[in-house]
Amino acid sequence: MTTFEKIYEIVRKIPYGKVATYGQIARLAGNSKWSRVVGYALHSNPDPDGIPCFRVVNRFGGLAPAFAFGGINVQAKLLRAEGVEVGADNTVDLNKYMWNGL
Q1: pTM score, two decimals?
Q2: Tens-digit pLDDT profile for residues 25-65
Q3: Which of 8, 14, 37, 69 could serve as 55's disulfide partner, Cβ 3.0–4.6 Å?
Q4: How many domains does the chain have?
Q5: Residues ≥6 apart with Cβ < 8 Å to 1
Q6: What are all long-range contacts of 75-82, with beta carbons under 8 Å and residues at least 24 apart?
Q7: Phi first, then psi: what are they for 47, rounded to 5°?
Q8: Which domain holds residue 70?
Q9: Which CATH number does the domain housing residue 69 bear?
Q10: How many Å apart are CA 76 and CA 71, to the nearest integer?
Q11: Residue 99 falls within a domain, yes or no?
């Protein structure tokens, strides 16, 4: 399994209405220094409908300014559709919405 495939497998497990951080996904994939690799993988997501990359945010709960599948407003819309509150500053409350892992 490639690194990207491992990342996609983990992202598929993020539950509806929850988010994970790039760093969290990197740790679960086996290397805590892979946060940027997670970003690269999600930017080239081959199956946006099956791999919910919109559920991945930065370590502060911030949405991706350059969300690859329509921009930050689309990411916010997808999260809100799942009941995740997105603030006016395009951040998510990690204390409330953070996925606790596998």
Answers
A1: 0.95
A2: 999 999 999 999 999 999 999 999 999 999 999 999 999 98
A3: 14
A4: 1
A5: 9
A6: 78/52, 78/54, 79/19, 79/54, 79/55, 82/16, 82/17
A7: -145, 70
A8: 3-85
A9: 1.10.10.10
A10: 9
A11: no
Backbone dihedral region for residue 34 (phi beyond 0: left; psi -120 to 50: alpha; all else: beta): alpha
Using alpha carbons only, give the angle 16, 20, 25 rounded to the nearest 5 degrees.
Answer: 120
Tokens 């690269």, residue? 40
**CA-CA-CA-CA torsion sign (11, 14, 19, 22):** negative
58: in domain? yes
Asked whether 57 and 63 are in contact (CB, 8 A), the reply is yes
Q: Is residue 90 part of a domain?
A: no
Q: Sort 61 into a burial class: Cβ within 10 Å, 0-12 / 13-18 / 19+.
A: buried
Residue 64 lies in a domain: yes
